[in-house]
Design brief:
Blueprint (H helix, E strand, L loop, with lengths): L3 H72 L5
């Protein structure tokens, strides 16, 4: 038969293992939720900023094309 001291050590080891596992799982679940929310917010910000950059580039291209068309018509290259 095992000694009383051995049984106590095993008992406390099992309790410690259960507590640590529970804390670990709880922390993992909470932190993964926080991380997902943070990533979603950052992706929204990146998408909004990217759309602004794209809009500016499109506006510049449109202005350039209007300017270039005006130059061509003024020089009489296209007019026949």
């Amino acid at each position: 038969m095992k000694s009383f001291k051995t049984k106590i050590v095993i008992f406390f080891f099992i309790i410690l293992l259960v507590v640590c596992r529970t804390l670990g799982i709880t922390s993992y679940v909470q932190l993964s939720g926080v991380l997902i929310n943070s990533v979603e917010r950052n992706l929204e910000k990146i998408a909004k900023e990217s759309s602004k950059v794209i809009k500016v580039r499109i506006d510049v291209q449109l202005e350039n094309s209007k300017y270039n068309k005006g130059e061509v018509y003024e020089k009489g290259i296209v007019n026949s």
